[in-house]
């Protein structure tokens, strides 16, 4: 969701009409369509940048923070529309979604994005590049740290179906009925199973996430 939103804001910042700001930036203004975030209402969009005579005229105000911006040579507050969109993305989406569910190795990178956008140290170009770096690490499995090989401690049984009701519940899970997580490989699944005292076995399903990660179901017996 956050990556899709950043791609949308990147387009708005570099649109043929100029930098577009969403004046009524609320979660209810967005919907997911085929895995991509879309804006449902463009009535409150604007390409107007705030006019200014000096830097003192260019303060971007939010309920909890204010940011001083520069007055450009053309008499417009430089990057006002782009930064307003980005900070709204931070306070309505990033703060609620980025800190949760990511693999431990990727959390520092996501915290860096969260802090940089919260302070508006990143523009939309830097934010998109940072998200794409995290996505690459996640899809490629490069985020996995070298660790002892734990899969060798498990016996692989193919063609068997486990009994219903054996799953224990965990967080975060793709299913409220049991413990369903996504991993890059069976080796990562073994490492996660070893780290949870309730887990005695796991099964690899045919489910895939939007990045192609496999679904793993964990069991206590």
UniProtKB/TrEMBL annotation:
Q: Which UniProt keywords apply?
A: Kinase, Signal, Transferase
What organism is recorded for this protein? Urocolius indicus (Red-faced mousebird)
Q: Which GO terms describe its cellular component?
A: extracellular region
Please state what the protein is called: PKDCC kinase
Gene Ontology molecular function terms on file: non-membrane spanning protein tyrosine kinase activity
The cross-references to InterPro entries, in alphabetical order and at most eight, read: PKDCC
Keyword field contains DNA repair = no
Mention one GO biological process in which this protein takes part, according to its record.
skeletal system development
Where does the secretion signal sit in this chain? 1-18
Its ancestry begins with: Eukaryota, Metazoa, Chordata, Craniata, Vertebrata
